[in-house]
Amino acid sequence: MTVEGAVENVARIRSVVGVGPALENIATLLDPPDSSLSEPDWVASILTASASPLLLDLHNLYANAVNFGHDPRDHLRRFPLDRVRIVHISGGHWIRLNAPEVRNRFATTPRRSRTDVPDAVFSMLVELGQNCPQP
Question: What range does the domain containing 121 cover?
Answer without folding.
Answer: 54-135
